[in-house]
Amino acid sequence: MATAMPTPATIDYAGGTLAREQVSLWRDGIRRLRRNKLALGAAIYLGFLALVCLVSIFWTPYKPNVIGTCETYQLPSAAHPLGCDDLGRDSLSRLMVGSQVSLSVGLATAIIVLGVGVVVGLIAGYFRGAADAIVSLGINIFYGVPPLLVAVALYVLLGSGLINIIIAISATVWMDMARLARGQALSIREREFIEAARAGGARWGKILFGHILPNALGPIIVQATFVIPVAILTAAFLSFLGFGVPPPKADWGGMANEGLPSLQGGFDPYILLFPALALSITLLAFNFFGDGLRDAFDPRQKR
Amino acid sequence: MLTRGTLIYIGQRLVLIVFTVVVVSFGVFAVVHSLPGNAFVSDRVHGQALQILLHEYGLDLPIPLQYWNWVKGIVLHGSLGVSLYIRGLPITPLVLRELSVSAMLGGSALIVTIGLGITFGVLAAVRQNSWVDYLLTSIAVVGYSVPSFVIASLGILIFGQWLNNLTQGALYYPEPWSGTYGSLAELSLPAIALGFYTSGQITRITRAAMLDVIQQDYIRTARAKGLQNRVVVIRHALRNALVPVTSILGPTVISIITGSVVIENIFGIPGLGKEFVESIFQHDYNVTVGVFTIYAILIGFANLAVDLVYTVIDPRIRY
Q: Which is nearest to A117 in space by CA: A191, A183, A202?
């Protein structure tokens, strides 16, 4: 009677361990992520981009906003690897600085959406009733308008600062996260451990954030990584249309916009091509990384 | 087909559409009318003259009252108001013409997106884990990662310049459009640039759905009956694989509308999206609100249409 039951992880059969060692969900996920070559490559690129972004705060080859550092429309050369733009500013320096806008918009939007979307969604899913009706109506209304136009309207209302751009974009991408959190809360609230917590006298705040949220964290984090490329893309669209950070500050969408006339005129396509390329590769990397993260942490979910 | 339940469902959705349109239009109305500056700033009118102008266009009234007058104009006269930039020009015919241009562009892009997406998805699934599969899924990922303005610029570069120089002007992509609607050749490049982005998502979902369906027993039965592979894939497998594809048609339409704003501005296409951006820069509030409202109505009906198409493709779904 006193002999302890062996746990599955330690059963030995004929000298060999059949069951593998027990690892936590997170360790397991990270292991799967590291085996995914595409996601790993994307992560390395994103690390490099973050480094470029940090360096550009302190150092760029030329001053990014000084007009006339070189000849206007100069094609790529040894002194200016990516050439110069229509005002004679060094394109490489501006490309480096432009990463600041893209990365900060992407990350800040993801954080805001994580905060707002998750809280709103959890409350709607847990309390149901009137709270759910209001939140669901809000989600439906926001799904009923083109996100880019809402962002433009908010941009015009709030003004052209970076923080206002982040707020405007957050307002157009929070719905998916809220819907996900609501669905998770709806299903998890029926499980026995929530009933146990309630019977034990836990308050709703403790149940929501101590019991439901940790169990819904996998899909929520995966969703958050998909918010980043969408936010970067929306920001690029905005500044391409002329609703970006105020000049002379460089950002990739705005640089592409400035390069459009010289591409259409047929004398210097590079002003547009390099920021467009940087934007595309960055979005690709975030998508690959998000896909890898989903496969690693949320194996059952398929899109 | 149209059961009582379906009709009730359609009725509920129509109520939701009306509610959404009212909330959206009032929200935008309130936002644009509370902006600093107004449409008359560039005219440098001040004091008394400005007050007279504002009064003439009803802009001195409280915003809820202005909104009420605007709604009355739509319901009683079918009029979205007059332009403030080109003073007194009725907006409705202008916006309707631009809507038809945008609809033609969006419709073409939708055909490109669905055609490309489903073809690529089916080919990738049928040749799973071959180089065809890898190539097509890579194109799909690139598709939804590369912004539409990048595709559009590359198109202009390749067709408008390189091929133009190469063929000495025989293959030339003209821009901006010569007329209101543009020829088929002029339409092709913007439609592809617009449709390529969403085709990536459709490729992905079609491929996954096809892989799911192909493994099922009734497909094996169909093959065992001696049906041609083409018949099995298209008539038996694809029909069922289309159900999940339909579910993203709604977001696809929204995505095309969003993208068209950018594409119209690049190619100089006189559509709703171009008008929207111009109206913002010109403080032409009535146009901004009108375009927004039309988009909200459009998206509402697009989503409703997708839900109804669902019932046609999958008879198990009833409302």
A: A183
Q: How far is A294 from chain B (nearest CA, A)?
A: 15
Joined together, the tokens standing for residue B101 give 């241009």
End-to-end CA separation in angstroms for chain A: 50
Of A140, A143, A266, the CB nearest to B161: A266
pLDDT at B78: 77
Q: Which residues contact B59 (CB under 8 A, 6 or more apart)?
A: B33, B38, B66
Give residue-wise pLDDT tens across range B260-273.
999 998 888 888 99
Domain ranges of chain B: 102-273
Chain A: residue whose CA lies nearest to B146: A280
ipTM over 0.95: no
B208 touches chain A (CB under 8 A): yes
pLDDT tens for residues A48-81? 999 999 999 998 888 888 787 787 777 788 778 8
What pLDDT score does A270 carry? Answer: 86
Give the count of alpha carbons within 13 A of B228, CB side only: 4
User: Which residues, given as ranges, of chain B have pLDDT below 50?
Assistant: none
CA distance A84 to B78: 52
Element (H, E) at A16: strand A16-17
A23-54+92-245+277-301 belongs to which homologous superfamily? MetI-like (1.10.3720.10)
- Say whether pLDDT at A30 is over 90: no
Q: Hey, how many other C-beta atoms are within 10 angstroms of the C-beta on B201? A: 20
Instruction: For A279, list phi and psi in degrees, rounded to 5.
Output: -60, -45
Q: Is the dihedral of CA B265, B267, B268, B273 positive or negative?
A: negative
For residue A27, CA distances in Å to A17, A39, A297, A299 come to: 20, 16, 10, 14
Nearest CA to B180 among B83, B110, B105?
B105
- pLDDT value at A302 more than 50: no
Select B102-273's CATH number: 1.25.40.180, 3.40.50.2300, 3.40.30.10, 1.10.3720.10: 1.10.3720.10
Mean pLDDT of chain A: 85
